[in-house]
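Hi R.,

As promised, here are both runs. First protein below:
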Amino acid sequence: MARLNPLIEAVGLEKTYPARDRKGMPFRAVAGVNFQVHRGEAFGFLGPNGAGKSSTMRMLGGVSAPTAGSLRILGLDPVADGRRVRARLGVVPQDDSLDTQLTVEENLVVYGLYFGLSRRAVKARTGELLEFARLEDKAGERVEHLSGGMRRRLTIARALINEPEILLLDEPTTGLDPQARHVLWDRLFRLKQDGVTLILTTHYMDEAEQLCDRLVVMDKGLIADEGSPRELIERHVTREVLELRFPPGENEEVARKLGDHVEVLPDRLLWYADDGEQALTQATEAGVRPLTALVRRASLEDVFLRLTGRSLTD
């Protein structure tokens, strides 16, 4: 049964830019999408570069007006009621926009004053957020001396200074090492447990599987599919995948021998099967001798590539 009163609802949402393409037409970055986000869930946007994710996030953040369709956030129109909407949002951009010449604590205090919070409230909130971000021992240190992971945690903490109901995160862990990514995942999971609604874009499929209750896969400004990570995997791929590697130039010939359930990549073959070990036995019985063979669980990355293609996009 569908839940009532979504926190965010988009119907026929479009965004067109005046930039002209080769045919002299405006560029439609978002081509009429429908989605709902409910209170307390983590909702993700996946898609290749140019799919329309960032344009959608900018409309959600109230900094870019929709060209067509309707968008309601917290029951409000983000264009007509932009100030009221933004007061209840937290935004974590792709690039940290911290003031590197200020200390960690000063970055939080100054940002809190932008929201009109009293100095007493800002001081109390700063202490809570330093603890949340595990930066208490760095409070007096200038941001320019922080590691990338620390800066990212500070950027998230800063976005929480106004106690937002919705937190927008644009590729929150890009460029971080695995340890820093896992620390951030833990912080974001805690926010979700506290009732904060998370909306994120990411290029890391494992991140989407870890964090998102539901997500949409976008391609060419449209939504290709929507569901939980598990639902999407079950809908589009088999339970397991057999990866086979061969010497250069042999992939196409081997694929023809194995059948149309095999997908050809530049560096390997993917055999989608419910039982990967059985598929490997079948390949061996067919006279196929791969250099390496790997059986793994099907993942959201398989879904992503199935829906959006495997060619590079700029």
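And here is the second one, sequence first, then its structure tokens:
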Amino acid sequence: MSKWISIAASAALVLTLSACTTDGTNGVDNVDNIEEVDATGNINFSNFVPIELSANAENWDPSAPWKLPEGYIQTVVSDETDLNIYPTENDWHDMNVVNETGTNAGRYLYRTHEVRLGATAPTEWNDLGGAVSVVDLETGETKIIAQSTNFTAIDGIAWTPWGSIVFNSETTAGSFYELTLDPNDMMSGTVTERPAVGKLSHEGVQVDADGNVYVVDEHRGRTQGCTDTNGIGVTNLGDTQLPCGGGIYKFVPNTYGDLSSGNLYVLGFPDANRDGTGQGAWLGPIDPENARESGSDIGGASYQRPEDLQIIDGVLYAAITEGPRDEYGKEYYEGRVLAIDLETIKVTNFVKAGLNAPIELGKPGQDGHQTGFDSVDNLAKAPNGDLVMVEDNSPSDIWFASTQTNEFGASKSVKLFASLTDGSAEGTGIYFSPTDPETLYVNIQHSGAENGDGTWAITKP
């Protein structure tokens, strides 16, 4: 049975203090918990009472895998019972985007699938190839919109201001693609590779209003270095690696809306900064065919596994999933989110465990467990302008961070919104459609449940 849902805009809702009590009889403990209402009558999704602890996977419920604040509900949009692309394995639903502009804006949800082809994958995967799927949120129809044996580990996806979709591959020297949709059938289109944007271990992608494209290299640049034949990233001390790769990049097309040609730049710091923060600059142009090594060779900053990007009000946020490691292989800290001011190129630590978010200790159910911020992965813009973050971790938590910052550029408020009870799975692809501010879309991949990979909608009726 199809699990599709159609989320309509809510009716105007007005709450007044005279209608609320503080004794808990109507579910309101105090006036600080009252939902805010914006000018359109929509509930402010971000004004929630945070959950206190991450989910404990013991006796988890596949029909309700997310631990949520009181009053929020979760519904399957589409899972492997609707479309099972890889029948013998999980479909690894990864990232989401809708048609954000144009006719029927918000109706179609496009999803990448991160399955990895090759010698270790089931043989039938190689015959099928990687895929991008689409869900009609009005009718529930679900289908593959793009698939090729040249695709593997298809990951990031974004809507462009000119009405196309860009997506990419996370493999080493992975490709960047553009999907031009059929104006008469938004569930069909033509894919073109865009090598000028760079060959990288792609994940996050953002396109600004001027048509510039921002991408990352999901590589452990601080510990893995580079191993290209030219020796870039290798010191004169034998096999010791210098930081290399794991950068953040900006592609500037020669012509707005045309990704076939342009210049690729890498984020760097004129004054060496081990932390990768401070006054940055876009260095280049660099060679897109050898973007990791050429970017590092020109002085690009190396981060430890950057994964996703999100632009909010002229600031580019970057999820750095891991922290650098010491000589024993232990992380100095559990990842972070950077904030890059796109006008000044000033780079700051926006969210970081131990700075403005709690440090995670142990796992739920263990003695001494402390819920905390760990291995941040994907990012999204909330309707009120907050940054939403989901972890590549077990348990996989969802956090909201205010973009109001202190004098050092760190968020003033970081709150725990949800936690995934499926201990074997990961939440990914968090996304708010600009046409539907009351629904948070999030994918679950490598679920422990049969046919459990899919897309969920979290709402508050």
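A quick note on the second one: The radius of gyration is 22 Å. Let me know what you think.

Best,
J.
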